[in-house]
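hey so i finaly got around to running the thing on TetR family transcriptional regulator BioQ from Nocardia callitridis. pasting the sequence first so u can double check i didnt mess up the copy paste, my clipboard has been acting weird all day
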Amino acid sequence: MQLHRTDVIDGAIAILDEYGLADLTMRKLAGSLRVQPGALYWHFPNKQALLGAVADRILAPMEDQVATEDWADQLDELAHRLRDSLLAYRDGAELVSATYASRLTTSKGRERMVAAALRAGMPRPEAELAAFTLLHYILGQTVDEQSRIQMDSVGALTEDASPLADTIDATARFDFGLRLFIAGIQHRLGVHQR
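ok and heres what it spat out for the 3d tokens, dont ask me to read them lol
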């Protein structure tokens, strides 16, 4: 059987979902695909390139059409879509965060956020900064959420770890921060328009 690039990505995602990012090694992946580790390097020059491809797969929903023309609704939809994409995979936020930091993902999700901010009337430099800020908010919030889920699943969370975090649903916390972010853009645009 010939090994294809998509087979390698599928195998990496299967390991990610079952064992987590820390256990996603080229050796383990080669074993699960029943090939020698060198066979993986035919498709990916190194593990970082593989992680970039896995991140692109995780972020694929960011390429789908946005359902609205309103810039604030677009940012809301893109933010929720990104969060949902990250939560769909174990350690998805951690993996995507690392690939964004090292510029290994080719996803245009951040650029779509820039476009929404430009549509709102922000100058390009501010739209770029706004998109990075929103991206980092989503990644950080989701890394925390996934870490808490994993720690809770093994009984590692203590009762007094964060009383507020335990009383507010993770989606409600996310939505609160997102509303603050969008309101901040609206306020800033109001200040510039005077």
